[in-house]
Amino acid sequence: MVIVESPDSASAWRDTIRQASGETLDLKAYEADMRHLIDTYIKADGARAISDFDGIGLLDLIVKSGIAAAVNGLPPGVKKNQGAVAETIANNVRSKIIKEKLNDPAFYDSMSALLNDVLADLRANRITYEEFLQKIADLATQVQSGKAESTPKTLDTPGKRALFNNLGQDEALALAIDAKVKMARPDGFRGSQAKENIIKRALLPLLGGDAAEVERIFSIIKAQPEY
Q1: Which of 18, 62, 203, 211 could make an SS bond with 70 (beta carbons 3.0 to 4.6 A apart)?
Q2: What is the pTM of this model?
């Protein structure tokens, strides 16, 4: 006798086997937690501004209005949870770091390391939540401005600061390379190997004849709109 299973029966058996094999996840055990997360963090209300500044980002708000105003402007489901606040601000800082890293690798790598240290200190209870907010506000200010508090005033453009940060903080060399690039660069040099080589040849003596170092610094110069 041949037993013919209905399509629905076969499908049910496949699902049972997959669950038993660990190939699928039974979400029933997680439904209560999922409902809690949805109720806590997801709202169906209409869009609203998180601050009095139209279209302003969280980092801008921290810089212009202070950390307290920035935290107060977060959605209710976030701001009532210290861990959620910390992660929200940290993620905004990290997003800015990732976006800008190619423009100034050394600076943003250092900012990333500082961010990791501050988060580690908070999670290990080495600093209080209030101390975290102050540290993350200082860090956000530096990340948003693209410069450290100790940056020399002569480095008054992003390009100069990027050169400084990626040349071992050698101010004189950074200024010399900035001047040389502005003097030697041909119009529309990006994407033209011949024109790019003109700049590279001009940089070679300033960088001790090190071709690899020229390539490294040139990639930073190329990423700077002012050049």
Answers
A1: 62
A2: 0.68
